[in-house]
Model the fold of this input.
Amino acid sequence: MKTAMPRAMTPIARELLLVGGGHAHVAVLRHFGRAPVPGVRVTLLSRDTHTPYSGMLPGLVAGHYSHEDCHIDLRRLCEATGARLIRGTLNSIDTVSRTAEVAERSSLAWDMLSINTGSAPALDSIAGARDHGIALKPIDRFISAWETFERSLTLARSPPRVMVVGGGAAAVEMALALSWRLEQSRRACRITLLAAGEQLLETHNPQVRRLLNGKLAAAGIDVRLGVRVTAVTATQLELADGTQLGCDLAVWAIHAGAPSWTRTTGLACDAAGFLAVDDTLRSVSNDGVFAAGDIAALPVAVAKSGVYAVREGQVLAHNLSQSLRGAPLRAYRPQRRFLSLLATGPRHAVASRGPLYASGDWVWRWKDRIDRRFMAMYALPPLPPAAPGTEPAMRCGGCAAKVGSEMLSGMLDRLAAAPRADIPHGIASGEDAAVIQPPAGQLLVQSVDYFRSFTDDPWLLGRIGAVHCLGDLHAMGAQPHSALAIATIPHGAPGIVRETLDQLMLGARSTLMAESVTLAGGHSGEGAELGFGLSVNGFVAPSALLLKSALQPGHALILTKAVGSGVLLAANMAGAARGDWIDAALTAMQQGHAAAMKILREHGISACTDVTGFGLLGHLGEMLRASGIGARLDLLAIPSLRGARECLSMGYRSSLHGANAAALAALEGFDPVDDATLALLVDPQTAGGLLAAVPEQRAEECVSALRAAGYGAATVVGCTDANLRPGRIGPR
Ligand SMILES: Cc1cc2nc3c(=O)[nH]c(=O)nc-3n(C[C@H](O)[C@H](O)[C@H](O)COP(=O)(O)OP(=O)(O)OC[C@H]3O[C@@H](n4cnc5c(N)ncnc54)[C@H](O)[C@@H]3O)c2cc1C
Done:
């Protein structure tokens, strides 16, 4: 399903924005991967990188499945289907400007919008429920909160009281799953199931109810019917009749609620706040907006259930594609009855469909087969690693054309920072060039860097690109001052080009502002693929300048960030890296160097470099040769990003790896080490860490301070050694 042509080669005319990676949108991604609509870029905005498959959640809690078994890796799915993944939480939607406001980052524009963000237990219907107890969804938060609770159990003198509140399938399955989990770990709790109705599982037949009531009783779960919980505190639940029940942990499995943002969009909603759609899954109030799954209110009410969301996915994919082509849409007809397979704790399940029922271990195996088959549809195989010596993926370029000046100046106006006396002419004055007044007695330090995009998210590219570019200034000990930007935006309709440029520059600005760096001007052009760079200016007093040539004997070498971003990005392009590995790498890349440099200075830094394209060994080699000294490294102490070693072991390498590998010749006297350890030494880094020398006696204290400041991977990786030949590296 991997797109045959690099995405950016097709001019982008329209944006299909999918919000939420729920059960329906994974089908849409698959559909558009197989049958893309020419000129349409598909972007998925998702809070989570790994989205859960609801059918397997009770099995996850009971311990039958791993996290990976029952979560779809949206990053890999997007990579394989040619969609962009932007991680973020939707805060609100403006249907007039057609933008989606995203928490902690710039807004996203769309031409067509589809929403599949699911639901969560309606906690606002119970006073105090947002502060006390844990909701079943989002499931990751539920599981980590439950694990924290479980750890506290060993300390408890009497078995704590867990109240599962809700009477539907999710509540019953979860109570049984929790009970089974506790039994397996030999921990004790008193579990009570509290339901407002006169019976549990009201939508199921009496035999199914009987079977499950039997399972609850056998598991020692106390069931209380006809009780409505109205409030909760840290120690008790309050019922509608005023009764108070002691409770150590409330688990909310009540009816689904809509998020609060739906009512602020102007889109038609039902009384509970779910988005009202017609039978084609299109908003009844806006032709350009679709919704599916729990968030949607269909003309015929259906249960908030993953089964419907999955089925809607097929119709939604078809209708989004048809709508983008101006073709007729298809109606979605929900099934009146569907097969439910309810897990009962151990590997045993109850089947229910209309008046039919069955139970047994075989039902669980049946359910397991169905669920795993579903998951297999979304676990797309990665591309194999490139054979050694083969050319890296095709690179395009050379067809740049200037982005319309009106567009550029409009964007630059919005980016203009507060006036600065030392920049008499910056963006706002519209001169041909920026004019900067250097501080008296200081040296001007300049650097420039530019790269092709390593992510589909232009905001992240701008943000990380700026960290990368400023790294050169920090490594020289300079205080960053101002920057000029250069950007290449993929060909597309003017609105799409403007949007991409905005995202890119807003991302860059977020990094620059954090370091009080002023964007003083820029140039942008259209080209085959997204690219970004900055020319950066900094100032430093001559006495504070840090040079690579200033390494001294008896100094420890500290690395402030883990290595491995090169191989992770390479494996990501092949669909072989796990989404959460890439999330962690992108987070590390966004971390700036200003705080680290301050700490390194406080601990007597003598020389520094930033670890980027040549990898750790390449940049260390530059320092050693310039300083006429050797070094010792502790190869096993070198911190690596999560998943980097796995990707190297699978055979993935960055396309720069081959050229960098020559630096390995500097190593001498090491015991044999595995290939992954060696490969990490020359893995090219984007926005990598600083490699700095501080006096040995202050190194540990310096590392502690770095870690306390958020550089969790900071480590002493080696030391200088004047007894080794210049440029040589031996074991520490
Ligand atoms: C414990 C439990 C067990 C269940 N078992 C079953 C079952 O066996 N069978 C069944 O059919 N149903 C089951 N359900 C119900 C089922 O989980 C839901 O009906 C189903 O998940 C809804 O699917 P969806 O596609 O609408 O959204 P979801 O699957 O909830 O997906 C929503 C996605 O949107 C993302 N998202 C949410 N908010 C935002 C935001 N603001 N911005 C960006 N992204 C966002 C989330 O990260 C998530 O990836 C169960 C529910 C629970 C709680």
About this structure: Residues 494-514 form the longest helix (21 residues).
